[in-house]
TrEMBL record:
Its main location: membrane. GO terms for cellular component: endomembrane system; membrane. Keywords: Membrane, Transmembrane, Transmembrane helix. It comes from Flavobacterium resistens. GO terms for molecular function: NADH dehydrogenase (ubiquinone) activity; NADH dehydrogenase activity. Residues 135-424 form the NADH:quinone oxidoreductase/Mrp antiporter transmembrane domain. This is NADH dehydrogenase subunit L.
Length: 627
């Protein structure tokens, strides 16, 4: 029964991918969209069954399909591990994934390659499920590389635009850098413990008497580098904002439910490794805090509605890594869940706006959409309140837990996280005021065609807005269902829940006031003063530095891209030319030798017999002389 459910869970999206790849075009857009959506919805239903089973029994489900690799004492199975963490992750991967698929039926209906889009979406979900339920690091790596491939395919889906192709390549290449770190970490762990299986590895580490802590720390650091690539942390974060090149449902899927959460999942899954690498945990916390702040500052001045949300994602991921760095894994998971709700809603809401404005993404050309698109407005407002940490929306509870954890471990990092949170509230309501309030600043043609999106778009928005409102109830301070649910997975209570006291209430009040301050500043500047950001040519000073993202892309281009291109051209034009001359020279020499040898072939049988006799006599003479 368990193996059937596991196979149904993982293979249904893959079947949807196959059907749409081979038959989607002939089936038509509506049917291909329905097949893709139903495939993920079936996986969601199976996840609910597994969640109920694991919650009631408290026992993990292990499924071994077959023995895969056995080299010396290293044995790796192709198997699945369905426990509290994996099933919890699957709930929002398949649940939010189903809503995004449903949304895409309407959003992508005018695209000629709609069947291909749903095929890629299904493949994306298939690989993410594989990543989450794998019983060892090698199965995780299959899913890890698979979601990287699908992100490349989907970011560059509109491949006739070269900028979109460049964004897809950038995401693919930058993730390969992180993946090298992940592979090295896997090799170190495999050589140390002769296993990549999670359960066996946890037992081996717990029972090790003379553990090489330096090698284990190196493995943890390499694994974290892999997480930096996949979950967009400094210095491997610049691909994620450019990933906005793909259709908006892709942005929602990558940012909310799948790819960027993979790094958080991997670190949480291997918590027993990172708990023993305290120095690496400190690095994780610092990188997370810096990433959160840097991304938030960039988000302050962006004018593309999707770019604002993209840098918001990078910033929120930084807060999650801040919690991971303090060993508060359940707190990080809590924010992953709430973030999935409100960020999916925000991206799909931005897609509704872009859809209504026929592709316009510049907030300077929006405004006044509140009356024309009321459902989109209210759902995005709810999600903006949630991400800003306003009581009592979901983000208030999860972000407050992160800041409390930071306060109890490192005051400086708490301050950095708090500043980033204030900035989040500011730029999110900057987005809301510029997009939905005051007068419409677009063209008359756009204004004439303004309307609310259809039911297939608004229904997912409403569901996600409800989840963004009440999702925080799964982990209330002092009464956390989530913490109790995940407790069997963690070796120590480093992230134990905070019981409310004077300090906690004070921190909560400071966080709320900070969020409200950010909203107030945005209100004064963009509503009361009716300020509209300047055109790109007129942006100067600090705003220019932030708008151009600290010129990090330009620095990377100068330090890495140009030297590599120079070396490539040098080897192509100089080295390969010389080697080609050598190779062709050898070919010419062989050709000349064969030409001269061919002259010996006269066609005279008598001459051949004479040469044969001479050769035979020479051989006989040599034998006698040698004796």
């Amino acid at each position: 029964m368990d193996i059937n459910l596991a196979l149904l869970l993982v293979l249904t999206p893959f079947l949807g991918f196959l059907i749409n790849v081979f038959f989607g075009k002939s089936l038509g857009k509506t049917v291909s969209g329905a097949i893709g959506t139903v495939a993920v919805a079936i996986s969601f239903i199976v996840t609910l069954i597994l969640f109920n089973q694991i919650t009631s029994t408290g026992k993990a489900i292990e499924v071994t399909l077959f023995d895969w690799i056995q080299i010396s004492n290293l044995k790796i199975n192709l198997g699945f591990l369905l426990d509290q963490l994996s099933v919890l992750w699957l709930l929002f991967v398949t649940g939010i994934g189903s809503l995004i698929h449903l949304y895409s039926i309407s959003y992508m209906h005018d695209d000629e390659n709609m069947h291909k889009f749903f095929a890629y979406l299904n493949l994306f979900v298939f690989f993410m499920i594989t990543l989450v339920i794998g019983s060892n690091l090698l199965v995780l790596f299959i899913g890890w590389e698979g979601v990287g491939l699908c992100s490349y395919l989907l970011i560059g889906f509109w491949h006739k635009n070269q900028d979109y192709n460049d964004a897809a390549k950038k995401a693919f290449i930058m993730n390969r850098i992180g993946d090298l770190g992940l592979l090295i970490g896997m090799f170190i762990i495999g050589s140390m413990f002769s296993t990549l299986d999670y359960a066996t590895l946890k037992t081996a580490i717990a029972g090790a008497s003379n553990l090489d802590s330096s090698m284990l720390s190196l493995a943890a650091l390499c694994l974290f580098i892999g997480a930096c690539g996949k979950s967009a942390q400094i210095p491997l974060y610049t691909w994620l904002p450019d990933a906005m090149a793909g259709p908006t449902p892709v942005s929602a899927l990558i940012h909310a439910a799948t790819m960027v959460t993979a790094g958080i999942f991997m670190v949480t899954r291997l918590n027993f490794v990172f708990d023993l690498a305290v120095d690496v945990q400190t690095v994780i916390a610092i990188i997370g805090a810096i990433t959160s702040l840097v991304a938030a500052t960039i988000g302050l001045v962006q004018n593309d509605i999707k770019k604002v949300l993209a840098y918001s994602t990078v910033s929120q991921l930084g807060l999650m890594f801040l919690a991971l760095g303090f060993g508060a894994y359940e707190v990080a998971v809590f924010h992953v869940i709430t973030h999935a709700f409100f960020k999916a809603c925000l991206f799909l809401g931005s897609g509704s706006v872009i859809h209504g404005l026929h592709g316009e993404q510049d907030m300077r050309k929006m405004g006044g959409l509140r009356k024309a698109m009321p459902i989109t407005f209210w759902t995005m407002l709810i999600s903006s309140l949630a991400i800003s940490g306003v009581p009592f929306f979901s983000g208030f509870f999860s972000k407050d837990e992160i800041l409390m954890t930071a306060f109890h471990h490192s005051i400086p990092l708490y301050v950095v996280g708090s500043i980033a949170s204030i900035m989040t509230a500011f730029y999110m309501f900057r987005l809301m005021f510029l997009t939905f309030f005051k007068e419409f600043r677009g063209t008359e043609e756009q204004k004439h065609h303004l309307h609310e999106s259809g039911a297939l778009i608004t229904i997912p928005l409403i569901i996600l807005a409800i989840l963004a409102t009440f999702g925080g109830l799964i982990s209330l301070p002092g009464n956390s269902w989530l913490n109790e649910y995940l407790a069997p997975l963690f070796t120590k209570a480093a992230g134990e829940e905070h019981h409310l006291g004077t300090t906690e209430y004070t921190l909560m009040g400071v966080a709320v006031l900070g969020g409200l301050l950010g909203i107030l500043i945005a209100y004064i500047k963009y509503f009361k003063q009716d300020n509209v950001p300047e055109s790109d040519d007129n942006i100067v000073g600090l705003n220019k530095l932030l708008y151009d993202k600290y010129y990090v892309d330009e620095i990377y281009d100068f330090v890495f891209v140009r030297p590599v291109n120079f070396l490539s051209k040098f080897f192509r034009d100089k080295v390969e030319t010389g080697l080609s001359a050598l190779v062709f020279g050898l070919g010419k020499a062989a050709n000349e030798l064969s030409f001269q040898g061919k002259k010996l072939q006269t066609g005279s049988i008598g001459l051949y017999l004479f040469a044969f006799v001479l050769g035979l006599c020479a051989i006989v003479s040599y034998i006698f002389l040698a004796q």
